[in-house]
Design a protein that fits this description.
- The chain contains eleven helices and ten strands.
- The strands form two sheets. Strands 1-2-3-5-7-10 form a six-stranded mixed β-sheet, with helices on both faces.
- A hairpin with a 2-residue loop joins strand 1 and strand 2.
- The longest helix is centred in the first third of the chain and has 28 residues.
Length: 254
Amino acid sequence: MLERDDVEVEGVPVAVLRMAHGPVNAMDLELCRALADRFRELVADPARAVVVTGSDRAFSAGVDLKRCAAGGDPYVEKFIPALVDAFRAAFELPKPLVAAVNGHAIAGGCVLAACADVVLMAEGAARIGVPEIRVGVPFPRIVLEILGVAVGDRAARELVMGARTYLPERAVQLGLVHEIVPAGELGARAAAEAAALARDVPPDTFATTKGQLRRVALERTDRYADEEEPVTTLWKRHIADGWVTRYLESVTGR
């Protein structure tokens, strides 16, 4: 589900987390819990930097909507907090985090990548973006805050309300991706970038500065915690009324 490799780049230990959860690394309850646990464990881990990536043809295609539809209200009530927890654990990690986007990064997959300090994406036709409102469900507050930090408020509005996915070149223009890398070089480049961030700045200084940059976003997330209930209600409503299933059928043809 979540594999770890440890590499050393010029004397800097880097932990590489690889999602290996089905063909497209769809985010379900189990993967979200595993991500949250692993990112929190990494706070006190000897690794000085972290890379998160996917496997096969996807970084992550986002939330496992089929699982949500099948599980109904009881599943959604457990899943939303787990999803929020996974994003927060990644966003709060006080060490350098690089996302190596090896394939499609859709919805939750895009948000997970946006939690990183640096986002590298493989050359090719993979797409990245957050089409969530077309699915019929709103974002939890922390997602809006993460995107705002990643690309700024104006671009975040375009991403969220436009609900499109983008090829790598446009993703760079929007600020979602920092650099496009040949697919065969992605893993090595991501590890080198993570190691450089860790090597060039004292760990405590990096952690403090990163925390300062993200503090307001996290404070707003906590301030608007009352949004979680209406968000969950809308997820349940549009699963029950068939909107989510119709969206799935429209994009998969099944």
